[in-house]
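User: Can you write out an input/output pair for a complex, sequences first and structure second?

Assistant: Here is one pair. Inputs:
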Amino acid sequence: MKRDDENIRWIEEPMLGWTGKTFLPLFIGGLTTTVRHLFSPKVTVSFPEERHEMADPLGYRGVHRLNRDEQGRVKCVACFLCATACPAHCIDIIAAESPWPDREKYPESFTIDELRCIFCGMCEQACPVDAIELTSLYDLSGKSREEMIFDKEKLLSIYDKTKDAEPMQSAAKPSSDKTPSDNPDAPGDTP
Amino acid sequence: MLLLAVEAFVKIALVIAGLMGGTSYLVLLERRMAAWIQDRRGPNRVGIPLTKIRIFGLGQPIADGVKFIFKEEFTPGHVNRLLYFVAPVLLLSAALAVFAVVPFGSVLPPVLGGEPIELVIAPGVNVGMLYVFAVGGIAVYGVILGAWASNNKYAFYGGLRSAAQLISYEIPLGLGVLGVVLMTGSLQLDKIITQQAAHGWNVLVQPLGFFVFAVAALAESGRLPFDLSESEQELVGGYHTEYSGIKLMMFLVAEFLHMIVAAFLIVILFFGGWHLPWITGSEHMVSGWLGGWLEAFLRVGVLLAKVLAVILFFMVARWSWPRFRFDQLMVLAWKVMLPLGMVNLVVLAVLVEYGKQMADALGVGEVVLVAAVGWITLVVSWVVTAAIIPAPGQSQALPIGAADSIDAEPAQQREEIEP
Protein backbone atom coordinates (compact mmCIF):
# COMPACT_ATOMS: atom_id res chain seq x y z
CA MET A 1 0.00 0.00 0.00
CA LYS A 2 1.50 3.31 -1.09
CA ARG A 3 1.17 6.57 0.74
CA ASP A 4 -0.77 8.10 -2.16
CA ASP A 5 -3.19 5.19 -2.29
CA GLU A 6 -6.66 6.60 -2.81
CA ASN A 7 -8.04 4.21 -0.19
CA ILE A 8 -6.04 5.91 2.50
CA ARG A 9 -7.82 8.92 3.91
CA TRP A 10 -5.42 11.31 5.57
CA ILE A 11 -6.84 13.23 8.51
CA GLU A 12 -5.31 16.43 9.79
CA GLU A 13 -4.85 16.41 13.54
CA PRO A 14 -7.36 18.96 14.86
CA MET A 15 -5.64 22.08 16.12
CA LEU A 16 -5.91 22.81 19.81
CA GLY A 17 -7.92 25.92 20.52
CA TRP A 18 -6.67 28.78 22.60
CA THR A 19 -8.13 27.33 25.80
CA GLY A 20 -6.88 23.87 24.90
CA LYS A 21 -3.34 25.18 24.70
CA THR A 22 -3.46 26.19 28.35
CA PHE A 23 -4.18 22.52 29.15
CA LEU A 24 -6.73 23.61 31.75
CA PRO A 25 -9.95 22.24 30.16
CA LEU A 26 -8.21 18.96 29.38
CA PHE A 27 -6.74 18.79 32.87
CA ILE A 28 -10.08 19.36 34.54
CA GLY A 29 -11.94 17.13 32.10
CA GLY A 30 -9.66 14.17 32.80
CA LEU A 31 -9.85 14.68 36.53
CA THR A 32 -13.64 14.95 36.67
CA THR A 33 -14.05 11.78 34.63
CA THR A 34 -11.79 9.86 36.98
CA VAL A 35 -13.41 11.18 40.13
CA ARG A 36 -16.88 10.45 38.76
CA HIS A 37 -15.92 6.83 38.16
CA LEU A 38 -14.26 6.64 41.58
CA PHE A 39 -17.65 7.00 43.22
CA SER A 40 -19.90 5.43 40.61
CA PRO A 41 -21.50 2.00 41.28
CA LYS A 42 -19.25 -0.95 40.51
CA VAL A 43 -20.00 -3.52 37.85
CA THR A 44 -18.03 -6.39 39.43
CA VAL A 45 -20.05 -8.97 41.35
CA SER A 46 -18.61 -10.52 44.52
CA PHE A 47 -18.99 -13.95 43.02
CA PRO A 48 -19.65 -16.68 45.54
CA GLU A 49 -21.86 -14.43 47.67
CA GLU A 50 -23.76 -12.82 44.83
CA ARG A 51 -24.27 -13.80 41.24
CA HIS A 52 -25.04 -12.02 38.04
CA GLU A 53 -28.67 -11.79 37.08
CA MET A 54 -28.93 -14.06 34.07
CA ALA A 55 -31.01 -12.62 31.24
CA ASP A 56 -32.31 -16.03 30.12
CA PRO A 57 -31.39 -19.02 32.30
CA LEU A 58 -33.07 -21.38 29.82
CA GLY A 59 -30.84 -20.21 27.02
CA TYR A 60 -27.62 -20.50 29.01
CA ARG A 61 -25.29 -23.38 28.19
CA GLY A 62 -23.95 -24.67 31.51
CA VAL A 63 -23.70 -28.12 33.08
CA HIS A 64 -25.83 -30.86 31.48
CA ARG A 65 -28.73 -32.60 33.10
CA LEU A 66 -30.67 -35.76 32.20
CA ASN A 67 -34.40 -35.14 32.38
CA ARG A 68 -36.90 -37.46 34.02
CA ASP A 69 -40.36 -38.18 32.71
CA GLU A 70 -43.60 -38.01 34.75
CA GLN A 71 -42.91 -41.34 36.43
CA GLY A 72 -39.43 -40.33 37.47
CA ARG A 73 -37.67 -42.55 34.93
CA VAL A 74 -34.82 -41.29 32.78
CA LYS A 75 -36.27 -39.88 29.56
CA CYS A 76 -33.34 -40.95 27.43
CA VAL A 77 -34.00 -43.68 24.89
CA ALA A 78 -30.32 -44.40 24.18
CA CYS A 79 -30.52 -43.37 20.52
CA PHE A 80 -26.87 -42.14 20.50
CA LEU A 81 -27.81 -38.97 18.56
CA CYS A 82 -26.21 -36.72 21.16
CA ALA A 83 -23.02 -38.77 21.26
CA THR A 84 -22.91 -38.61 17.44
CA ALA A 85 -23.49 -34.90 17.35
CA CYS A 86 -20.97 -34.12 20.04
CA PRO A 87 -17.90 -32.47 18.45
CA ALA A 88 -15.78 -33.12 21.53
CA HIS A 89 -16.71 -36.80 21.88
CA CYS A 90 -17.40 -36.38 25.54
CA ILE A 91 -20.65 -38.39 25.80
CA ASP A 92 -20.39 -42.13 26.41
CA ILE A 93 -23.58 -44.20 26.43
CA ILE A 94 -24.03 -47.92 27.06
CA ALA A 95 -27.48 -48.95 25.90
CA ALA A 96 -29.50 -51.86 27.24
CA GLU A 97 -32.90 -53.33 26.58
CA SER A 98 -35.53 -51.24 28.22
CA PRO A 99 -37.39 -52.74 31.20
CA TRP A 100 -40.33 -50.49 30.34
CA PRO A 101 -42.90 -51.23 27.60
CA ASP A 102 -42.99 -47.73 26.05
CA ARG A 103 -39.51 -47.85 24.47
CA GLU A 104 -37.00 -50.32 23.18
CA LYS A 105 -33.76 -49.14 24.77
CA TYR A 106 -32.62 -47.16 27.75
CA PRO A 107 -29.14 -46.05 28.84
CA GLU A 108 -27.60 -48.46 31.28
CA SER A 109 -24.78 -46.02 31.70
CA PHE A 110 -24.63 -42.41 30.53
CA THR A 111 -21.46 -40.46 31.26
CA ILE A 112 -20.36 -37.02 30.17
CA ASP A 113 -16.77 -35.88 30.59
CA GLU A 114 -17.38 -32.29 31.65
CA LEU A 115 -13.71 -31.47 31.13
CA ARG A 116 -13.83 -32.42 27.45
CA CYS A 117 -17.20 -30.81 26.86
CA ILE A 118 -17.08 -27.49 25.01
CA PHE A 119 -20.63 -26.53 26.02
CA CYS A 120 -21.77 -26.02 22.44
CA GLY A 121 -25.29 -27.35 23.15
CA MET A 122 -25.43 -29.60 20.10
CA CYS A 123 -26.42 -32.63 22.22
CA GLU A 124 -29.41 -30.64 23.42
CA GLN A 125 -30.40 -29.85 19.85
CA ALA A 126 -29.86 -33.38 18.63
CA CYS A 127 -31.96 -35.08 21.31
CA PRO A 128 -35.31 -36.23 19.84
CA VAL A 129 -36.97 -36.69 23.25
CA ASP A 130 -35.57 -33.66 25.08
CA ALA A 131 -33.78 -35.88 27.56
CA ILE A 132 -30.48 -33.99 27.70
CA GLU A 133 -30.45 -30.29 28.42
CA LEU A 134 -27.93 -27.67 29.44
CA THR A 135 -28.67 -25.86 32.69
CA SER A 136 -27.56 -22.43 33.82
CA LEU A 137 -25.11 -23.81 36.41
CA TYR A 138 -21.68 -22.56 35.46
CA ASP A 139 -19.53 -22.96 38.57
CA LEU A 140 -18.64 -26.62 38.37
CA SER A 141 -15.36 -27.67 39.89
CA GLY A 142 -13.72 -30.83 41.12
CA LYS A 143 -10.54 -32.06 42.71
CA SER A 144 -9.69 -34.72 40.12
CA ARG A 145 -10.34 -35.53 36.48
CA GLU A 146 -12.32 -38.65 37.44
CA GLU A 147 -14.61 -36.54 39.58
CA MET A 148 -15.50 -34.43 36.57
CA ILE A 149 -16.80 -37.40 34.56
CA PHE A 150 -20.50 -37.16 35.43
CA ASP A 151 -22.45 -40.42 35.40
CA LYS A 152 -26.18 -41.01 34.99
CA GLU A 153 -27.07 -40.57 38.67
CA LYS A 154 -25.13 -37.32 38.89
CA LEU A 155 -26.80 -35.96 35.76
CA LEU A 156 -30.23 -36.99 37.03
CA SER A 157 -29.51 -35.34 40.37
CA ILE A 158 -28.71 -32.11 38.55
CA TYR A 159 -32.17 -32.36 37.02
CA ASP A 160 -33.69 -32.80 40.48
CA LYS A 161 -31.79 -29.75 41.65
CA THR A 162 -32.69 -27.48 38.75
CA LYS A 163 -36.14 -28.65 37.60
CA ASP A 164 -38.02 -26.02 39.59
CA ALA A 165 -35.93 -23.08 38.54
CA GLU A 166 -35.59 -24.21 34.94
CA PRO A 167 -38.56 -26.22 33.65
CA MET A 168 -37.98 -28.65 30.80
CA GLN A 169 -38.06 -26.98 27.42
CA SER A 170 -40.53 -29.54 26.10
CA ALA A 171 -42.87 -28.53 28.91
CA ALA A 172 -42.46 -24.86 28.05
CA LYS A 173 -42.86 -25.37 24.30
CA PRO A 174 -46.67 -25.67 23.81
CA SER A 175 -47.42 -22.56 25.85
CA SER A 176 -44.71 -20.38 24.35
CA ASP A 177 -45.25 -18.50 21.12
CA LYS A 178 -42.31 -19.79 19.16
CA THR A 179 -41.82 -19.01 15.52
CA PRO A 180 -42.54 -21.87 13.11
CA SER A 181 -38.90 -22.23 12.13
CA ASP A 182 -38.07 -23.22 15.72
CA ASN A 183 -40.33 -26.24 15.44
CA PRO A 184 -39.01 -28.92 13.08
CA ASP A 185 -42.50 -30.46 12.81
CA ALA A 186 -44.09 -27.30 11.44
CA PRO A 187 -45.49 -27.86 7.97
CA GLY A 188 -44.05 -24.66 6.49
CA ASP A 189 -40.53 -25.70 7.32
CA THR A 190 -40.17 -28.45 4.76
CA PRO A 191 -39.76 -27.31 1.18
CA MET B 1 25.76 10.94 73.86
CA LEU B 2 24.39 7.44 74.35
CA LEU B 3 20.91 8.90 74.66
CA LEU B 4 21.38 10.70 71.35
CA ALA B 5 22.46 7.49 69.63
CA VAL B 6 19.47 5.60 71.04
CA GLU B 7 17.20 8.42 69.94
CA ALA B 8 18.61 8.32 66.41
CA PHE B 9 18.26 4.54 66.15
CA VAL B 10 14.70 4.63 67.44
CA LYS B 11 13.83 7.28 64.86
CA ILE B 12 15.53 5.35 62.04
CA ALA B 13 13.67 2.16 62.99
CA LEU B 14 10.42 4.09 63.21
CA VAL B 15 10.86 5.77 59.84
CA ILE B 16 11.94 2.64 57.98
CA ALA B 17 9.19 0.52 59.53
CA GLY B 18 6.66 3.25 58.83
CA LEU B 19 7.82 3.66 55.26
CA MET B 20 7.83 -0.05 54.49
CA GLY B 21 4.46 -0.66 56.13
CA GLY B 22 3.09 2.50 54.62
CA THR B 23 4.35 1.57 51.17
CA SER B 24 2.79 -1.89 51.28
CA TYR B 25 -0.56 -0.44 52.28
CA LEU B 26 -0.27 2.38 49.77
CA VAL B 27 0.22 -0.28 47.10
CA LEU B 28 -3.03 -1.84 48.28
CA LEU B 29 -4.70 1.57 48.27
CA GLU B 30 -3.40 2.20 44.78
CA ARG B 31 -4.82 -1.10 43.56
CA ARG B 32 -8.16 -0.39 45.19
CA MET B 33 -8.24 3.13 43.75
CA ALA B 34 -7.35 1.83 40.30
CA ALA B 35 -10.15 -0.71 40.59
CA TRP B 36 -12.70 1.85 41.76
CA ILE B 37 -11.81 4.24 38.97
CA GLN B 38 -12.29 1.40 36.49
CA ASP B 39 -15.66 0.48 38.09
CA ARG B 40 -14.21 -2.67 39.65
CA ARG B 41 -13.92 -3.59 43.33
CA GLY B 42 -10.24 -4.46 43.60
CA PRO B 43 -8.53 -6.89 45.99
CA ASN B 44 -10.91 -7.28 48.94
CA ARG B 45 -10.54 -10.95 49.85
CA VAL B 46 -7.32 -11.49 51.75
CA GLY B 47 -7.80 -11.10 55.48
CA ILE B 48 -6.05 -12.54 58.50
CA PRO B 49 -3.98 -15.55 57.38
CA LEU B 50 -5.37 -19.02 58.21
CA THR B 51 -8.74 -17.62 59.23
CA LYS B 52 -11.83 -16.82 57.24
CA ILE B 53 -11.86 -13.23 58.43
CA ARG B 54 -11.70 -10.69 55.61
CA ILE B 55 -11.00 -7.15 56.65
CA PHE B 56 -11.59 -5.33 53.37
CA GLY B 57 -8.55 -7.07 51.88
CA LEU B 58 -6.16 -5.59 54.42
CA GLY B 59 -4.16 -8.83 54.41
CA GLN B 60 -3.24 -8.34 50.76
CA PRO B 61 0.20 -6.75 51.44
CA ILE B 62 1.23 -9.86 53.41
CA ALA B 63 0.24 -12.06 50.51
CA ASP B 64 2.05 -9.81 48.04
CA GLY B 65 5.19 -9.74 50.15
CA VAL B 66 5.25 -13.51 50.65
CA LYS B 67 4.68 -13.98 46.94
CA PHE B 68 7.60 -11.74 46.01
CA ILE B 69 9.94 -13.37 48.52
CA PHE B 70 9.20 -16.95 47.51
CA LYS B 71 9.08 -16.39 43.77
CA GLU B 72 11.92 -17.79 41.75
CA GLU B 73 14.63 -15.20 41.56
CA PHE B 74 15.93 -15.78 38.10
CA THR B 75 19.17 -14.21 37.00
CA PRO B 76 19.55 -14.34 33.23
CA GLY B 77 22.88 -15.63 31.95
CA HIS B 78 23.68 -12.59 29.86
CA VAL B 79 23.67 -9.94 32.60
CA ASN B 80 26.56 -8.13 34.19
CA ARG B 81 26.21 -9.87 37.53
CA LEU B 82 27.83 -7.29 39.81
CA LEU B 83 25.88 -4.32 38.51
CA TYR B 84 22.73 -6.44 38.24
CA PHE B 85 22.87 -7.05 41.99
CA VAL B 86 24.02 -3.56 42.95
CA ALA B 87 21.35 -1.61 41.04
CA PRO B 88 18.23 -2.43 43.10
CA VAL B 89 20.13 -2.10 46.38
CA LEU B 90 21.49 1.27 45.31
CA LEU B 91 18.10 2.54 44.21
CA LEU B 92 16.30 1.42 47.35
CA SER B 93 18.96 2.62 49.78
CA ALA B 94 19.11 6.01 48.06
CA ALA B 95 15.34 6.30 48.21
CA LEU B 96 15.38 5.48 51.92
CA ALA B 97 18.35 7.71 52.69
CA VAL B 98 16.45 10.79 51.50
CA PHE B 99 14.18 10.47 54.53
CA ALA B 100 17.09 11.28 56.86
CA VAL B 101 16.36 15.00 56.55
CA VAL B 102 12.62 14.89 55.87
CA PRO B 103 10.73 15.84 59.04
CA PHE B 104 7.69 13.73 59.89
CA GLY B 105 6.44 15.99 62.66
CA SER B 106 7.65 18.94 64.64
CA VAL B 107 9.03 18.44 68.15
CA LEU B 108 8.27 15.95 70.93
CA PRO B 109 8.49 17.22 74.51
CA PRO B 110 11.56 16.00 76.42
CA VAL B 111 11.57 12.38 77.54
CA LEU B 112 13.73 11.28 80.53
CA GLY B 113 14.68 14.88 81.18
CA GLY B 114 16.68 15.30 77.98
CA GLU B 115 16.33 17.81 75.20
CA PRO B 116 13.10 18.13 73.20
CA ILE B 117 13.12 15.52 70.45
CA GLU B 118 12.91 16.77 66.90
CA LEU B 119 10.94 14.41 64.68
CA VAL B 120 13.51 14.10 61.93
CA ILE B 121 16.30 11.52 61.79
CA ALA B 122 19.07 14.06 61.30
CA PRO B 123 17.96 17.27 63.04
CA GLY B 124 19.55 20.55 62.14
CA VAL B 125 21.08 19.56 58.81
CA ASN B 126 21.35 23.01 57.30
CA VAL B 127 21.82 21.72 53.74
CA GLY B 128 18.57 19.77 53.94
CA MET B 129 17.22 20.48 50.47
CA LEU B 130 20.66 20.04 48.86
CA TYR B 131 20.97 16.67 50.56
CA VAL B 132 17.60 15.62 49.20
CA PHE B 133 18.69 16.57 45.70
CA ALA B 134 22.10 14.93 46.00
CA VAL B 135 20.80 11.62 47.31
CA GLY B 136 17.75 11.75 45.06
CA GLY B 137 20.09 12.14 42.08
CA ILE B 138 21.57 8.72 42.84
CA ALA B 139 18.23 7.25 41.78
CA VAL B 140 19.29 7.89 38.18
CA TYR B 141 22.30 5.64 38.75
CA GLY B 142 20.15 2.84 40.11
CA VAL B 143 17.94 2.99 37.05
CA ILE B 144 20.80 3.27 34.56
CA LEU B 145 22.84 0.52 36.21
CA GLY B 146 19.87 -1.82 36.31
CA ALA B 147 19.07 -1.09 32.68
CA TRP B 148 22.68 -1.47 31.51
CA ALA B 149 23.40 -4.58 33.56
CA SER B 150 20.27 -6.31 32.24
CA ASN B 151 21.84 -6.39 28.76
CA ASN B 152 18.37 -6.17 27.26
CA LYS B 153 17.18 -3.72 24.61
CA TYR B 154 13.88 -2.91 26.26
CA ALA B 155 15.49 -2.41 29.63
CA PHE B 156 18.12 -0.20 28.05
CA TYR B 157 15.53 1.93 26.27
CA GLY B 158 13.74 2.32 29.57
CA GLY B 159 16.94 3.30 31.31
CA LEU B 160 17.85 5.86 28.65
CA ARG B 161 14.42 7.44 28.72
CA SER B 162 14.46 7.49 32.48
CA ALA B 163 17.88 9.12 32.60
CA ALA B 164 16.92 11.83 30.12
CA GLN B 165 13.66 12.46 31.91
CA LEU B 166 15.08 12.59 35.42
CA ILE B 167 17.92 14.90 34.41
CA SER B 168 15.59 17.22 32.47
CA TYR B 169 13.10 17.55 35.29
CA GLU B 170 15.76 18.12 37.95
CA ILE B 171 16.05 21.66 36.59
CA PRO B 172 12.42 22.80 37.02
CA LEU B 173 12.43 20.92 40.31
CA GLY B 174 15.42 22.92 41.45
CA LEU B 175 13.91 26.19 40.22
CA GLY B 176 10.75 25.45 42.18
CA VAL B 177 12.78 24.85 45.31
CA LEU B 178 14.91 27.95 44.78
CA GLY B 179 11.83 30.14 45.05
CA VAL B 180 11.04 28.63 48.42
CA VAL B 181 14.63 28.97 49.55
CA LEU B 182 14.61 32.65 48.52
CA MET B 183 11.52 33.26 50.64
CA THR B 184 12.85 31.36 53.64
CA GLY B 185 16.54 32.06 53.49
CA SER B 186 17.29 28.48 54.57
CA LEU B 187 17.64 25.06 53.02
CA GLN B 188 16.58 23.36 56.23
CA LEU B 189 13.20 21.67 55.85
CA ASP B 190 11.90 22.31 59.36
CA LYS B 191 12.85 25.98 59.08
CA ILE B 192 10.90 26.16 55.82
CA ILE B 193 7.85 24.85 57.67
CA THR B 194 8.24 27.30 60.55
CA GLN B 195 8.59 30.18 58.12
CA GLN B 196 5.36 29.17 56.40
CA ALA B 197 3.59 28.80 59.75
CA ALA B 198 4.49 32.42 60.43
CA HIS B 199 4.02 33.99 56.97
CA GLY B 200 1.47 31.88 55.11
CA TRP B 201 1.82 28.82 52.96
CA ASN B 202 4.02 29.04 49.90
CA VAL B 203 1.29 27.65 47.67
CA LEU B 204 -0.66 30.86 48.26
CA VAL B 205 2.34 33.13 48.00
CA GLN B 206 4.07 31.63 44.94
CA PRO B 207 1.55 29.47 43.06
CA LEU B 208 3.70 29.43 39.93
CA GLY B 209 6.59 27.91 41.87
CA PHE B 210 4.24 25.31 43.29
CA PHE B 211 2.92 24.47 39.84
CA VAL B 212 6.41 24.03 38.39
CA PHE B 213 7.60 22.01 41.39
CA ALA B 214 4.53 19.77 41.49
CA VAL B 215 4.76 18.85 37.81
CA ALA B 216 8.50 18.25 38.08
CA ALA B 217 8.08 16.17 41.24
CA LEU B 218 5.43 14.05 39.55
CA ALA B 219 7.80 13.55 36.63
CA GLU B 220 10.71 12.74 38.96
CA SER B 221 8.70 10.06 40.70
CA GLY B 222 8.05 8.54 37.27
CA ARG B 223 4.33 8.08 37.64
CA LEU B 224 1.76 7.81 35.01
CA PRO B 225 1.60 10.82 32.83
CA PHE B 226 5.40 10.62 32.99
CA ASP B 227 6.11 6.89 33.24
CA LEU B 228 7.91 6.58 29.92
CA SER B 229 10.75 4.68 31.54
CA GLU B 230 8.57 1.63 32.10
CA SER B 231 5.66 2.07 29.74
CA GLU B 232 4.37 -1.48 29.61
CA GLN B 233 2.77 -1.03 26.23
CA GLU B 234 6.09 -0.32 24.54
CA LEU B 235 8.93 -1.58 26.70
CA VAL B 236 7.67 -4.75 28.42
CA GLY B 237 8.65 -3.52 31.89
CA GLY B 238 11.20 -0.82 31.18
CA TYR B 239 14.46 -0.87 33.10
CA HIS B 240 13.36 -3.73 35.39
CA THR B 241 12.32 -6.07 32.58
CA GLU B 242 14.95 -8.66 33.50
CA TYR B 243 14.37 -8.54 37.24
CA SER B 244 12.24 -10.90 39.27
CA GLY B 245 11.52 -11.85 42.86
CA ILE B 246 12.84 -9.76 45.71
CA LYS B 247 15.01 -7.58 43.44
CA LEU B 248 11.98 -6.57 41.42
CA MET B 249 10.22 -5.77 44.66
CA MET B 250 13.11 -3.51 45.67
CA PHE B 251 12.72 -1.58 42.42
CA LEU B 252 8.98 -1.26 42.85
CA VAL B 253 9.25 -0.20 46.49
CA ALA B 254 11.92 2.35 45.58
CA GLU B 255 9.59 3.79 42.96
CA PHE B 256 6.84 4.08 45.51
CA LEU B 257 9.26 5.73 47.93
CA HIS B 258 10.08 8.31 45.27
CA MET B 259 6.40 9.16 45.12
CA ILE B 260 6.22 9.43 48.91
CA VAL B 261 9.29 11.70 48.95
CA ALA B 262 7.69 13.86 46.27
CA ALA B 263 4.49 14.08 48.33
CA PHE B 264 6.44 14.95 51.49
CA LEU B 265 8.41 17.65 49.67
CA ILE B 266 5.30 19.19 48.11
CA VAL B 267 3.62 19.31 51.51
CA ILE B 268 6.67 20.61 53.35
CA LEU B 269 7.74 23.18 50.79
CA PHE B 270 4.35 24.50 49.71
CA PHE B 271 1.55 23.36 52.03
CA GLY B 272 3.08 24.35 55.35
CA GLY B 273 4.10 20.89 56.58
CA TRP B 274 2.50 20.26 59.97
CA HIS B 275 0.91 23.71 60.05
CA LEU B 276 -2.86 24.05 59.92
CA PRO B 277 -4.26 27.46 60.85
CA TRP B 278 -6.01 27.63 64.24
CA ILE B 279 -5.33 23.95 64.94
CA THR B 280 -1.60 23.37 64.85
CA GLY B 281 -0.40 26.95 64.67
CA SER B 282 2.76 28.17 66.27
CA GLU B 283 0.98 28.93 69.56
CA HIS B 284 0.48 26.21 72.14
CA MET B 285 -3.19 25.30 72.44
CA VAL B 286 -3.00 23.62 75.82
CA SER B 287 -0.15 24.50 78.08
CA GLY B 288 1.90 22.09 80.12
CA TRP B 289 3.06 18.54 79.67
CA LEU B 290 -0.17 17.19 78.14
CA GLY B 291 -0.49 20.11 75.76
CA GLY B 292 2.99 19.52 74.39
CA TRP B 293 2.30 15.87 73.59
CA LEU B 294 -1.13 16.60 72.17
CA GLU B 295 0.27 19.26 69.89
CA ALA B 296 3.14 17.03 68.79
CA PHE B 297 0.81 14.22 67.77
CA LEU B 298 -1.65 16.60 66.12
CA ARG B 299 1.17 18.00 64.02
CA VAL B 300 2.31 14.52 62.96
CA GLY B 301 -1.28 13.71 62.07
CA VAL B 302 -1.77 16.89 60.06
CA LEU B 303 1.48 16.37 58.15
CA LEU B 304 0.70 12.76 57.32
CA ALA B 305 -2.87 13.61 56.33
CA LYS B 306 -1.60 16.24 53.91
CA VAL B 307 0.95 13.79 52.48
CA LEU B 308 -1.78 11.20 52.04
CA ALA B 309 -3.93 13.76 50.24
CA VAL B 310 -1.12 14.51 47.79
CA ILE B 311 -0.53 10.78 47.24
CA LEU B 312 -4.24 10.29 46.58
CA PHE B 313 -4.04 13.05 44.00
CA PHE B 314 -1.09 11.27 42.36
CA MET B 315 -3.11 8.06 42.25
CA VAL B 316 -6.11 9.75 40.67
CA ALA B 317 -3.83 11.59 38.26
CA ARG B 318 -2.48 8.24 37.11
CA TRP B 319 -5.82 7.34 35.55
CA SER B 320 -6.81 10.84 34.44
CA TRP B 321 -4.37 11.77 31.71
CA PRO B 322 -2.66 9.76 29.01
CA ARG B 323 1.10 9.30 28.95
CA PHE B 324 3.19 11.95 27.19
CA ARG B 325 5.04 11.17 24.03
CA PHE B 326 8.77 11.53 24.53
CA ASP B 327 9.13 14.75 22.53
CA GLN B 328 6.14 16.20 24.39
CA LEU B 329 7.85 15.29 27.64
CA MET B 330 10.98 17.16 26.64
CA VAL B 331 9.03 20.16 25.32
CA LEU B 332 7.23 20.37 28.64
CA ALA B 333 10.47 20.27 30.60
CA TRP B 334 12.64 22.60 28.54
CA LYS B 335 10.22 24.93 26.79
CA VAL B 336 7.48 25.25 29.40
CA MET B 337 8.63 24.38 32.90
CA LEU B 338 12.13 25.85 32.66
CA PRO B 339 10.98 29.34 31.52
CA LEU B 340 8.10 29.33 34.02
CA GLY B 341 10.47 28.44 36.82
CA MET B 342 12.82 31.23 35.74
CA VAL B 343 9.99 33.78 35.68
CA ASN B 344 8.93 32.70 39.16
CA LEU B 345 12.47 32.97 40.45
CA VAL B 346 13.08 36.42 38.98
CA VAL B 347 9.77 37.83 40.25
CA LEU B 348 10.40 36.42 43.70
CA ALA B 349 13.95 37.75 43.78
CA VAL B 350 12.69 41.24 42.98
CA LEU B 351 9.98 40.91 45.63
CA VAL B 352 12.38 39.69 48.30
CA GLU B 353 14.76 42.56 47.53
CA TYR B 354 12.28 45.42 47.14
CA GLY B 355 9.06 43.93 48.55
CA LYS B 356 9.20 45.81 51.81
CA GLN B 357 9.61 49.20 50.13
CA MET B 358 6.92 48.43 47.55
CA ALA B 359 4.49 47.27 50.25
CA ASP B 360 5.16 50.40 52.28
CA ALA B 361 4.64 52.60 49.21
CA LEU B 362 1.38 50.88 48.29
CA GLY B 363 0.18 50.71 51.87
CA VAL B 364 -0.56 46.95 51.89
CA GLY B 365 0.88 44.07 53.88
CA GLU B 366 3.98 42.50 52.47
CA VAL B 367 2.45 38.99 52.34
CA VAL B 368 -0.61 40.31 50.51
CA LEU B 369 1.58 42.05 47.96
CA VAL B 370 3.75 38.98 47.38
CA ALA B 371 0.71 36.73 47.04
CA ALA B 372 -1.04 39.11 44.64
CA VAL B 373 2.07 39.40 42.48
CA GLY B 374 2.49 35.62 42.64
CA TRP B 375 -1.00 34.91 41.34
CA ILE B 376 -0.77 37.58 38.64
CA THR B 377 2.54 36.05 37.57
CA LEU B 378 0.96 32.63 37.40
CA VAL B 379 -1.94 33.69 35.20
CA VAL B 380 0.08 35.94 32.89
CA SER B 381 2.99 33.56 32.39
CA TRP B 382 0.71 30.59 31.85
CA VAL B 383 -1.36 32.39 29.23
CA VAL B 384 1.74 33.77 27.50
CA THR B 385 3.34 30.33 27.46
CA ALA B 386 0.22 28.81 25.97
CA ALA B 387 0.19 31.48 23.27
CA ILE B 388 3.90 31.31 22.36
CA ILE B 389 4.75 27.64 22.60
CA PRO B 390 3.19 25.37 19.99
CA ALA B 391 1.13 22.80 21.78
CA PRO B 392 3.08 19.57 22.05
CA GLY B 393 1.87 17.20 19.41
CA GLN B 394 1.65 19.80 16.69
CA SER B 395 5.28 20.85 16.78
CA GLN B 396 6.66 17.52 15.64
CA ALA B 397 4.02 16.36 13.18
CA LEU B 398 5.70 15.67 9.84
CA PRO B 399 3.96 16.87 6.69
CA ILE B 400 2.98 14.03 4.40
CA GLY B 401 5.63 14.89 1.82
CA ALA B 402 8.41 14.91 4.40
CA ALA B 403 7.45 11.47 5.62
CA ASP B 404 7.57 10.28 2.03
CA SER B 405 11.10 11.50 1.54
CA ILE B 406 12.18 9.83 4.77
CA ASP B 407 10.85 6.55 3.48
CA ALA B 408 12.49 7.05 0.13
CA GLU B 409 16.02 7.65 1.36
CA PRO B 410 16.90 4.22 2.74
CA ALA B 411 15.53 2.65 -0.43
CA GLN B 412 17.97 4.62 -2.54
CA GLN B 413 20.83 3.69 -0.28
CA ARG B 414 19.92 0.05 -0.50
CA GLU B 415 20.04 0.22 -4.28
CA GLU B 416 23.49 1.71 -4.11
CA ILE B 417 24.74 -0.98 -1.80
CA GLU B 418 23.21 -4.00 -3.46
CA PRO B 419 25.16 -4.13 -6.73
